[in-house]
Amino acid sequence: MINALVVLLGFQLGGEVVVRFLGLPVPGPVLGAGALALALLWRGRVDTVLSGTAHGILRNLSLLFVPAAVGVIEHRDVFVRYGLPLIVTLIVSAILALTAAALVFRAVGRR
User: Fold this and answer.
1) Cys-Cys with 15: which of 28, 40, 66, 79 at CB 3.0–4.6 Å?
2) What transmembrane ranges does the database entry give (predicted)?
3) Dihedral sign computed on CA atoms, order 100, 107, 48, 16
4) How many CA atoms lie within 13 A of 110 on its CB side?
5) What is the tens place of the pLDDT at every residue in 28-73?
6) What is the pTM of this model?
7) What Å distances lie between residue 106 and 92, 99, 102, 103, CA to CA?
8) What b/e sequence results for 26-36 when a residue is b if at least 16 CB atoms lie within 10 Å of its CB, and e otherwise?
9) Would you state the pLDDT for residue 67?
10) Contact 11, 33 (CB under 8 A)
């Protein structure tokens, strides 16, 4: 499990380093996840330890939203003042993200 965490965090760190060094407008963890995906495609398989660790992290992912909820409560005056624009922005961005994901899924499904 430790080795799998080192691999996951190593790719995340690598993505951060590349983004900061090249000044790319992409989050480092996204670049690292893409590099990990390419490495796994090139390798042709996923180790059971890496798969098990990734599934364990995903099962507990909801715990990562607790700090965000505390931040919302801490800055409630901002949400009272800008609540409607924030809600509209969240809804529109969620719809756009789902639409983009559906279009990509359809395009890949045709291949």
Assistant:
1) 28
2) 25-44, 56-73, 79-105
3) negative
4) 5
5) 999 998 999 999 989 888 888 888 888 888 888 887 777 877 887 8
6) 0.57
7) 21, 11, 6, 5
8) eebbebbeebb
9) 80
10) yes
- How far from chain centre, in Å, is Cα 82? 26
Pick the closest to residue 27 from 35, 17, 19 (CA basis).
19
> What's the rounded Cα separation, in Å, for the pair 69 and 79?
12
Inter-residue contact 80 to 37 (CB < 8 Å): no
Tokens describing residue 51: 């798969």
Q: Which amino acid appears at position 47 of this protein?
A: D
| DSSP symbols for 16-71 | HHHHHHHT-SS-HHHHHHHHHHHHHHHHT---HHHHHHHHHHHHTGGGGHHHHHHH
pLDDT digits (tens, 9 = 90+) for 81-108: 988 998 899 899 999 999 999 999 998 8
